[in-house]
Design goal:
- The protein has 454 residues and is mainly alpha-helical.
- It has one domain.
- It is built from 19 helices and no strands.
- Helix 12 packs antiparallel against helix 13.
- It is globular and about 60 Å long.
- The relative contact order is 0.14.
């Protein structure tokens, strides 16, 4: 009965996606609070809040890099797992899940060690000043303790969702987020730990979330449980995970690269205050990326499952639903930022000097946000159907090939700090359209042929 309930080949496709997406979106909403609540509290500290916010912003590239490896080894295996489950190959699916977990454990240990050894030169290379480095190092030195737990939660939670347990996946995030939200003001203000307190609250919440995820995956309620003997690295499975997970890695990795380039460029042209403004802009973008990200996360196991089951008409319906919902939502989000920029900026900082320059930068940064829906629709389809080549290319195109060069070039040709914020909307238009048009001309055609053969 449980298998029937979690069979994505039954019922309307949009309903399967929404059933998955709603709890995932709630989970990601809480995950968002998990990620940004530190910045909200830090941005409203009485002494040096803008500088502290800048310092925490300097750690974003490192956090993004850790999440990049979570995506490489975790989400790189989930579509493969879903396709094998759809084809009825449960033992192969279990081995893929165990292989992912082994890779996550190994990489988390290596990344933690590298972070502690090279944190100082890395932070200065990322745009830290002598003043902001104090806050950045306080946060990072504690945050790194929880690397193994944060990677386990992020990387393995997808295997819960892929088996049709989105509510359990939702609670994986909610539990940690609530703990973080409760502990943050306690550690930051009551115990007067400041930035270090925010990091400690995050680590504690990550530990609890990881325990929850592993307890469920090793338990009896899951359809394909994780087993000790399956936690091993297999060369062929690892190669397949790398191929498909590389797009996730590049998406997060290029975010890391962009943050580094943006922070260092802004430090050179505007100083700490503009690095703080970019921290706020990125935080607001995380808020608005949330619902569309929830839809995409909910649709991927459904599309992958039906592709593995050769139900091509349902695959096409899923892609069409993603595109429509994504376009409507991102247009609405763009309008909200244009109409109420002071509100969104004020969530993260009440520093009037920062807000004075930041509001206009925020409107520039979000210009053309609607085109992100095409990036999401195209990118997620490539990934769900196992088209690693295109998924990797379009991950690179928008950030590494468009944003990074523009971030360096535009300030040099007269745009100054404004040029750094202009790079994002330009990449949204070019990268989004290129990804979606290519998906329609390649993968979509293969699906059409499959429909004709059904």
């Amino acid at each position: 009965m449980e298998s029937q309930k979690n069979d994505f080949s039954k019922g309307p496709v949009w309903k399967c996606i929404i059933t998955q997406a709603v709890p995932l979106t709630i989970a990601q909403l809480v995950q968002l609070l998990y990620n940004v609540v530190d910045r909200i509290y830090i941005g409203h500290m009485e002494d040096g809040s803008s500088l502290a916010l800048t310092g925490v912003g300097l750690t974003f590239p490192i956090v993004s890099l850790i999440m990049a490896f979570s995506g490489l080894f975790g989400m790189g295996g989930v579509p493969l797992f879903s396709m094998e489950r759809g084809a009825g190959n449960e033992e192969k699916a279990r081995r893929i899940m165990g292989n992912s977990f082994a890779l996550l454990l190994l990489s988390s240990v290596v990344l933690t060690a590298i972070g502690y050894v090279f944190s100082k030169p890395i932070l200065f290379a990322f745009g830290a000043s002598e003043d902001s480095f104090v806050y950045a190092s306080q946060y990072l030195n504690i945050y790194l303790i929880g690397t193994i737990c944060s990677m386990t939660t992020t990387g393995m939670n997808g295997y819960i969702n892929a088996q049709g347990f989105p509510k359990i996946g939702m609670f994986s995030v909610i539990i940690g987020a609530i703990i973080n939200i409760v502990l943050d003001p306690l550690f930051i203000f009551v115990f007067d730990m400041g930035v270090a307190g925010a990091a400690l609250a995050t680590v504690i919440s990550q530990v609890v979330s990881a325990i929850w995820v592993l307890k469920f995956l090793f338990g009896k309620k899951v359809i394909i449980p994780l087993q000790i003997q399956s936690i091993r690295i297999n060369k062929d499975i690892t190669k397949d995970i790398f191929k498909l997970g590389t797009s996730n890695f590049i998406m997060s990795g290029t975010n890391c690269l962009v943050q580094v380039v943006c922070n260092s460029t802004l430090q050179g042209y505007g100083g700490d205050i503009y690095v703080g403004v970019m921290t706020v802009a990125n935080s607001v973008r995380e808020i608005f990326n949330l619902p569309i990200s929830g839809i995409i996360s909910g649709s991927q196991p459904v599309i992958s499952f039906n592709y593995g089951a050769k139900a091509y008409t349902r695959v096409k319906s899923g892609i069409r639903f993603n595109t429509f919902i994504g376009t409507a939502y991102t247009m609405a989000a763009w309008i909200l930022v244009v109409l109420f920029p002071e509100f969104w900026f004020g969530i993260f900082s009440d520093d009037m000097q920062m807000m004075e320059v930041g509001v206009e930068m925020l409107k520039i940064y979000f210009f053309g946000f609607v085109f992100m829906s095409f990036q999401f629709a195209g990118q997620s389809t490539f990934q769900a159907l196992g088209d690693a080549k295109h998924a990797i290319f379009f991950s690179l195109l928008r950030k590494a090939i468009i944003v990074v060069p523009l971030t360096l070039l535009l300030p040099m040709v007269g745009f100054g700090v404004t040029g750094v914020f202009l790079a994002e909307p330009i990449s949204n238009v070019i990268g989004g359209l290129a990804s979606y048009i290519t998906m329609r001309m390649t993968v979509y055609k293969k699906i059409e042929k499959g429909i004709q053969g059904e």
